[in-house]
Amino acid sequence: MNFAGFLQHLVNAFSLGGIYALIAIGYTMVYGILRLINFAHGDIFTYGIYFAFYGVILFLMPWWAAFIFSIFVTAFLGAFIERIAYRPLRNAPRISALITAIGVSFFLENFAIVVFGGRAKSFNPQTGIYPTSFLNMIDIGDVKIPVLTFITIGIVVLALLLLMWIVYKTKIGMAMRAISKDIPTTKLMGVNADRVISFTFMLGSGLAAIGGILWAMKYPQVYPYTGMIPGLKAFIAAVVGGIGSIQGAMIGGFILGISEIMIVAFVPSLAGYRDAFAYAILLFVLLVKPTGILGVEVSEKV
Amino acid sequence: MVKTLPNKLKFLLTVILIAIIGLLLFVANNKASEYVILILNLMAINIIFAVSLTLINGITGIFSLGHAGFIAIGAYVSTLLTLSPAQKEMTFLIKPLIYPLNQIQMPFLPATLIAGLVAAGFGYIVAAPSLRLIGDYLAIATLGLGETIRIIANNAWSITNGALGLKAIPPYTNIYWSWGWAFVTVLVISSLAKSSYGRALKAIREDPIAAKAMGINVFSHQVVSFVLGSFFAGVGGALWAHLITTIDPKSFAFSKTFEILIMAVLGGLGSISGAIIGASIYTVGLEFLRVLESPFKIGFISFPGIPGMRMVVLSVLLIVLMLFWQRGIMGRNELSWDMIYDLVARESNKKRGVKDE
Questions:
Q1: Chain B within 8 Å of A189 (Cβ-Cβ)?
Q2: DSSP letter (8 states) at residue A170
Q3: Is A236 in Cβ contact with B140 (below 8 Å)?
Q4: In the predicted structure, residue A77 carries a pLDDT above the cut 60
Q5: Which residue of chain A has the CA closest to B311?
């Protein structure tokens, strides 16, 4: 493979890795605070795409308005799910919360089948969902890369910077970090824990919606199970990076995206096993470092 | 106070109960419609799945989400062993089946046993590294392994026929096979749970560190539980494949594990009799929910059937169960003759106006 081809794959890998990172952050923030694997996160991603789709098709919004609309609605959907299904179980055994999360995931998938139909909906620019100019090619030397890839990378970087600003520079970000260390003590300090947790779900779900829209522009269709595979991979990315750590989720997302694209590019005969690589990486990392790359060692309490 | 019955009487009652169930199944097999027989078979297979998952998740406390993977192994292995060479040649169009699998054909029982053993072998390979992980990480690893098995089934064309799956599987599974295996599963797993070994498993569930401190080899106990659970999942998979007669990788997606989890949770995670009750209710309930998907009338209003509504109701059911009734039907208790006797005695005391002590 020549250098130009490699460069092309690298850019693709970064855009895919960025999308995984956006979703992985949703998993990692929720886990960091509640110690809950939010199985429904991949389906929230799917709903983000549906909201954007129907914003344009049904409510006749311009594409950018529909995308912003989708991000906000998805954010509220995430907070709503937390309120209905997870909050009542805050003090229940962790396994109950986990099973509930699996239940919510199945509910969202099957509800989508009933409401939106099981057939895939086309998310291509011909339906007016995003401008055709996104698919124009930019030539860099011998390499042709669609504008969309650069837009994706740009939006991912912007979203990640915004997130870092919220988490590390704002008051609510400080509350989030405090709560992930110790909920009862943080409450004693006068922090409204429920509100902070709701906000965390909104933030994570909003990022999932951004990831979803970028994903749907890359693979232009949406059906009720769209979020399953990217959701699982992002989840693995979160674990690989060390679940609970935002930087870890980003690293994990990029590791997964880059290795996936590169393996398929260099060993095309294994392309069918693409989805299994993520699990192989997961097992390898967990065996070497059981809490992930940036994970904190938790000592057994006796 | 719980009164206990003499052991001999309990044994006798159990034998009578099993005889009655056997007789009912015999009658059903001869008189009932094909549809009812299918449901009865499914019920037994679901009991095998739910009880084997209960051993791993409920009794030992390993939160495994990879059950569908072991079911897949059982289904594929047994099918490859029972299909005739001629049929294999007809099925494997894209890539021929590898030698020696393309020459072998054997009866159902050895095929089922080998299917279970291969699943158990995989369980062992999987358990050894992943049991080093704890809690959520273990759940993730087992989920990944289950999915990996499905992905391999989807891509290893020369062994599994890839996404096309296997068709025209001989319909060997009948009421005697399925209920016979269900009986064996329950017998083996409940004897294990009652033995000192089982008490050690429960100790591990409650507190692995304390169990370790009491001298229990946590790791080896967990491996045994996981391997045994995988064996019966494989056997169940074999029965299932020979009941529905066509399998493809999609049949073993995560939703299969989810279904079994619902059965176990409904019955009470940690209770074998609960798993049996949960699996039975689930199987029959799923059939009743079919009404939702076909058009129906209430009074003058007619509702169109909504495809997919069944799964919506099921997932809501699971969420509601978890929110309001986490213990399920049985909690961690087992149904026993003592318990029934106690209930009956209390009822008759009430009738006679005697107060409970």
A1: no
A2: S
A3: yes
A4: yes
A5: A110
